[in-house]
Amino acid sequence: MLLVIQLLVFAVGVWAVVHAVRQRPDAFTAVDKLTKAKWLAILAVSALVILFLGFNGSGFLLSLIASVAVFVYQADVRPKIDEVQRGSRW
Fold it and tell me: In sequence order, which residues have a C-beta less than 8 Å from that of residue 67 and are 6 or more positions away?
């Protein structure tokens, strides 16, 4: 079961990296978030930590921290970046 969770969280991390790569650098600063380069580094390292350390044994805490970073991007940063690049719907 932990392997399934690990692979799902890893997939979300990879999706976050792909999303961040495709965005304009100025969109990150426009929504008062870290720069694109910093988010890419955080997300890439997080995905690798989740892939290689997993959620069992001594790597649990690091993988948990990496998962939080990925989900913060997905829940907070990604929607704001998408909104600022899409513009107003009115």
Answer: 9, 46, 50
Mean pLDDT of 31-50: 97
Domain boundaries defined on the chain = 7-82
Q: In the predicted model, is pLDDT for residue 24 greater than 60?
A: yes
pLDDT value for 85: 87
CA torsion, ordered 44, 35, 79, 81, to nearest 10 deg: -130
DSSP states of 14-67: HHHHHHHHHS-HHHHHHTT---HHHHHHHHHHHHHHHHHHTTSGGGHHHHHHHH
Helix, strand, or coil here: 1?
Answer: coil
